[in-house]
Amino acid sequence: MGRTQGILDRFPHFYLSEDARSLFYQFVQVFGETLDEVEADLLRVMYAHYVDKADNEGSQGFNTNQKGDLDKIFSLYLENLGGTSQLKQVNRPSGQEGIESDKIYRQRIRGLINVLKSGASTKQGIIDIVAANLGIVGEDEAAIAARNQIRIFEFLPEPQTNTWNDLHLLQEFVVENPNVVKTYPEIRLRIGAISQLPLPLTKPRIVNLTTGEFVQYNGTVNKGDLLSFFPNKTASLNGIPIPVVGGTPALWLGESHWRFEALIGQPEARFDRTLFDFSLFQAESLTSPDDEQAAAFAIDITMTVSKLTPGSFMVRIPWDIPGFTENLDQFGDRPREQIKYIVDKVKAAGVFAVIAYEKRFDQETHELADSLRGSAQRQPLPEDHVIEEANFDIGSIQTPYAGGIVHELSDSLTTSGVFDYTQFDSLNTFA
Question: Which carries the bigger pLDDT value, residue 341 or residue 376?
Answer without folding.
Answer: 341
